[in-house]
């Protein structure tokens, strides 16, 4: 074959060209890493403490916290989350441990970091107390900002506007997260409402849907929760992700007939969901020298990340 024919043959081949690698400002990313400093966990809880200063000053803080703990023992979730006087205290007490745990999850899992590096919509169910907001905003400082444009839709049944506003304002002040990088929307409503067109719309729009320590609460109403799961899977767009994090202990037991299952077994059996991350038991333990007005709890949890086929 002469050189002319060889050249023509090469031109006719459909050669897959290498796509240029995404570029980012390495110096800018290095500066972003400095936002949380050398002790990211302490930085995060210090931010939470500042956002909750007025709550800690309440005379009834410890009394309200003890009542909340008693309600958890009896699984009286509605009593906790529909009583407005409880919500600020609940956030101050429970957000630190969960936010640190969620931060570790988002900042150490490539599948989740990729979502935070681009234009994405996140629908966080039961996220009114602010744990997801804090964790996601902190994890966002660990990736390049060039194409970062996150819309965070937080849904919950309680009156959490003031709690989330305080967290958002403190986050923007301390961590320099702009509204262009992270826009926040809070929508109050019952996620188990089968007639809510807004909830279905949010599910269909989301690139990532999260259930972080909320599945067990929903399954107190078993039939409604099962209906929600069916609606969720049907509504999710192809390629969207579902993140479920929940207690790895007996609180996640689901009784069906005479048998007891872990709640993740129900989700693992759904054929339309591809399992991406699966750990049945994992501990998050915070640093021993963490400084916060009250004890911050360590957490044992299971994690599932699914991708809609």
From TrEMBL:
InterPro entries, A to Z: Methyltransf_34 (IPR021463), SAM-dependent_MTases_sf (IPR029063)
Pfam families given in the database record: Methyltransf_34 (PF11312)
Gene3D superfamilies to which the protein is assigned, alphabetical: Vaccinia Virus protein VP39
Protein name: 25S rRNA (Uridine(2843)-N(3))-methyltransferase
Organism: Rhizopus oryzae
């Amino acid at each position: 074959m002469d050189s002319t024919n060889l050249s023509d043959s090469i031109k006719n081949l459909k050669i897959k060209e290498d796509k240029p690698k995404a570029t980012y400002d390495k110096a800018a990313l290095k500066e972003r890493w400095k936002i949380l400093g050398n002790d990211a966990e302490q930085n995060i809880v210090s931010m939470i403490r500042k956002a909750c200063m007025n709550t800690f000053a309440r005379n009834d803080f410890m009394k309200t916290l003890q009542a909340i703990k008693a309600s958890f023992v009896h699984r009286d979730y509605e009593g906790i989350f529909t009583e407005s006087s409880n919500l600020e205290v609940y956030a101050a007490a429970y957000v630190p441990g969960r936010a640190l745990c969620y931060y570790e999850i988002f900042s150490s899992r490539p599948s989740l970091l990729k979502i935070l590096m681009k234009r994405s919509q996140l629908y966080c169910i039961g996220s009114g107390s602010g744990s997801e907001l804090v964790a996601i905003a902190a994890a966002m400082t660990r990736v390049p900002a060039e194409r970062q444009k996150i819309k965070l839709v937080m849904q919950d049944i309680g009156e959490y506007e003031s709690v989330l506003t305080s967290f958002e304002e403190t986050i923007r002040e301390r961590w320099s997260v702009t509204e262009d990088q992270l826009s926040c929307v809070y929508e109050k409503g019952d996620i188990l409402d089968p007639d809510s067109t807004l909830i279905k719309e949010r599910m269909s729009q989301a690139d990532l849907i999260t259930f972080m320590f909320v599945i067990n609460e929903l399954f107190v109403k078993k039939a409604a929760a099962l209906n929600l799961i069916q609606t969720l899977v049907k509504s999710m767009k192809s390629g969207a992700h579902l993140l479920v994090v929940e207690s790895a202990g007996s609180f996640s037991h689901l009784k069906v007939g005479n048998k007891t299952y872990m709640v993740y077994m129900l989700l693992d059996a759904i054929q339309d969901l591809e399992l991406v991350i699966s750990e049945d038991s994992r501990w998050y333990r915070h640093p021993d020298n963490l400084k916060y007005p009250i004890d911050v709890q360590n957490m044992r949890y299971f994690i599932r990340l699914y991708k809609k086929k």
